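Revision sheet: structure tokens.
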Amino acid sequence: MIKRLTLLLAAALSCSSAHAEPKKLLVVTVTTGFRHSSIETAEKVLAELGTKSGAFTVDFVHQPEGQPKNPGKPPVRGDKDTDESFKAKAEAFSIASAKFNEDNQVWGDKIKAYMAEKMALDKIKDYDGFVFANTTGDLLFPDRDGFIKLIENGKAFIAMHSGSDTYHPFRGYIEMLGGEFETHKSQVEIQPTLHSPAHPITKSVPVGWKVFDEIYIIKTFDKAKVHGLLGLNSHPNLAQLTDEEKKKEDELKRYFPVSWCKEYGAGRVFYTSLGHREDVWDPTWKEGTPDRKNSPEIAHTYQEMILAGIQWALKLTEGPATPGNIP
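Predicted:
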């Protein structure tokens, strides 16, 4: 009888575990700066990872419609330009810039009202974690300090790619994340160093793994304050640098982080700068076309890393966050 009760209890516990309530994630894809074409792909993949794993559900704070298009940089006079043609280009740019500034102010007010509704603390406090998927700029949260406090008090925070190109003037966000975007050069293939190969986030990343993407140069980063996952000991675009730039980099001996995790108070933070390209996110994107630079296997590895990073940040798995593991 005792043995039978033990078996029944074990089965009940197993059943209870199998039907544990999934965690709740809020995915933010709002941008007030550059907007990546891969955002829709990222949204699709994150929703699929939640459904397939059963570990979490996903709600979204999407981009409101109506963001005006920036006219870009002023025209540069070309060899074939006449005084009249260049004057016309300059005048057209001036008109477009004035219209953009006017429209952007209206849109900024719309974003502020939208975020006040969607990101009010009383509406987001019950989420277990937050994902900034390729966000940019000032997101105009109604209480940005209160949001950071949620992470500090135990929530999960996950950010991909330009999640580090977000809230630059708000140092509380940068401190929580662990670094911020400075610049990038052309897209390039890298073979990052695995700093923590046994970590649940990176254990699926094979030795010698390569990925083609837009690789960020990160500033205000202190490797003594994070647990390194992926990184580079030389500039990702080293072959493209001038001799003078190479000499400078050799003197600086800089480290170039690609992915890390850390604890922030009682919360957990996971970041990867990868994710600019659709084919990093999605193994099926433009499959079999010249536009695709990453194999489906590379995208599968990225998805596995993202899923594991979310699960770790949500405290569904355990792995080290001990800072200072980057040589």
